[in-house]
Design goal:
There is one protein chain. This protein is an alpha/beta fold and 233 residues long. It folds into two domains: 3-183, UDP N-Acetylglucosamine Acyltransferase, domain 1 (3 Solenoid); 187-232, no CATH class. The chain has helices at 3-17, 24-29, 32-48, 52-66, 187-205, 213-232; strands at 69-70, 75-76, 81-83, 89-90, 95-96, 101-103, 107-109, 121-122, 127-128, 133-135, 139-140, 145-146, 151-152, 160-163, 168-172. The strands form three sheets. It has a six-stranded mixed beta sheet with strand order 3-6-9-12-14-15. A five-stranded parallel beta sheet has the order 1-4-7-10-13. Helix 3 (32-48) packs antiparallel against helix 4. The longest helix has 20 residues, at 213-232. The mean pLDDT is 85.
Length: 233
């Protein structure tokens, strides 16, 4: 597919991915992420033809206009949508599959100064939340979601949700909703709920009445064990 057909496809995908758009005017003036990807398509063509310095110059201009930093040597698939986009960084050896959605402030960065593949591979249909940092030569499996402000330094299996610092896989199994940011679990909340229930149980043990305490303690032990197992994944 030609560069301009890819760009046209990128523009059309906005109407499917963002309910906030109501006119072509908005597309041209309110979507820096779309323009950053369009500029990347052109710069990447020049980079592959050997005009690497010129390609870097083009993306430098694009960064000044859009505040989005994409290396022209990165590999970006079809219909990739950078929503809002301010502060997004995509490194030189990053590979992004088709239909990926990236929100503002996300980084696909490296953790090594060694040459070679040092940036993430993001497979198709992945959603990367706002402010997330995906670092190193790791793979984010297809249909996965990365929670906002998470720091991912290990592979994420396909059809999973990863949250936290460092990110942990907290759910597996595809969520058919395209975004479902409201369904991303809060592991800190779950841990505090466990601790509060444990304290309440201990306080109750100190009272004269001890009905069903053993059953409650065993139930909490199962909840705690399930939580620890999810953190180890």
């Amino acid at each position: 597919m030609s560069v301009f057909k890819l760009i046209a496809e990128d523009f059309k995908s906005v109407y499917r991915r963002d309910p906030a758009i109501h006119s072509r005017f908005e597309l041209f003036f309110n979507y820096p992420g779309v323009w950053a990807v369009a500029n990347y398509r052109i710069a990447n063509w020049f980079h592959r033809k050997g005009f690497k310095l010129f390609a870097r110059f083009l993306m430098g201009l694009s960064q000044l206009i859009t505040n989005i930093d994409i290396h022209p040597a990165a590999t970006i698939g079809r219909r990739v949508f950078i929503d809002h986009g301010i502060g997004v960084v995509i490194g030189e050896t990053a590979i992004i599959g088709d239909d990926v959605t990236i929100y503002q402030g996300a980084t696909l960065g490296g953790v090594s100064l060694n040459p070679g593949k040092r940036h993430p591979t993001v497979e198709r249909n992945v959603v990367i939340g706002a402010g997330a940092k995906v670092l190193g030569n790791i793979t984010i499996g297809y249909n996965s979601k990365i929670g906002a402000n998470s720091v991912v330094v290990r592979d994420v299996p396909p059809e999973s949700t990863a949250v936290g610092i460092p990110a942990k896989v907290v759910t597996k199994g595809r969520d058919k909703s395209p975004l479902s940011h409201n369904k991303i679990p809060d592991i800190n909340k779950e841990l505090f709920e466990y601790l509060l229930k444990r304290v309440a149980l201990i306080e109750h043990i100190l009272t004269p009445e001890h009905r069903e305490l053993l059953e409650k303690e065993q139930e909490l032990d199962k909840i705690y064990e399930a939580f620890i197992q999810s953190m180890k994944q």
